[in-house]
Amino acid sequence: MTRAKRTAGPRSQSNDDAENTTVKWSQERRLQFIDFRLQWEGRINRKHVTEFFKISVPQASADLALYQQLMPDNMRYDTSTRMYVAKQEFMPRSDTSGARQYLSQLLALHRGILTSEETFLSFTPPMESVPLPARSLEPKVLFPLVQAIAECGKLMVKYQSIARDEVPARFISPHAFGYDGIRWHVRAYCETRQGFRDFVLGRILSAGQPVASDVRSSDDVDWHRYVDLVLKPDPSLTPAQRRGIELDYAMKNGTSTVTCRKAMLFYTLRTLNFEIDGRPRNGEKQLVIANLAEIEQMLPSFGQA
User: Fold this and answer.
1) CA 184 to chain CA mean position, Å
2) What is the CATH code of the structural domain delimited by 147-220?
3) Which tens digit of pLDDT belongs to each residue from 197-240?
4) Ranges of CATH 1.10.10 domains, the chain
């Protein structure tokens, strides 16, 4: 494939008739598939569409015709290969064809989260990811937590804390899940501790049936409050090194802002290689927090998380 990729962002439909075209969800999914294959493989034909979606040839032809109507500058039919190929001026129609989506599908396929029948990929380049230890996730624990969140209820759990050996039963009122890139936890009000806490899913030994709770998720101030981390390259870096950091983190005017919930600040700092006081970890010379003084009062304290 020799065309130059142009991935500035999804493009609007080219005429008023196309903009007024009503597309059903199932057909929209097929249009996204066509867009994705053109973006990342540069070509597509009816067989690709019929085999992936298990639809008839006439339906696949109609989908390709509709895509060409909506995005006339995106593809042309090549009679020698009997393929629709992406034009040089191709611009993706949908956000689902973006670079993040491509790599997310590749990673999900690699880790077994999705099967090849569930991704839009036909060619999968070799890849590897950091191996992670298996974490315990029991459906018999997760389901009642989901139920309790849906019903705004509470339930009795037995939780193995690393701070003590005993496993007392306690009532918690869960309202959200959190993920730090390695493990899942549930955000919940703990009647024993009289406050909102994070409970690692794998340490919940048992969970009862949900009952009514007086706790409101809106009472979790740290969950509903957001913190802006303004990142910039470490001043000790050379100009060339700082430029590399700016490119890597898509910085504008030398800074990039990461916004997270205050309840997730501990995990966010850890992921970005900062200590909980906001300083870079020992040996790290890439990023610093430019607005550290402004957010100092919001930083987590030892033992808080």
Assistant:
1) 14
2) 2.30.30
3) 999 999 999 999 999 999 999 999 999 999 999 999 999 999 99
4) 1-120
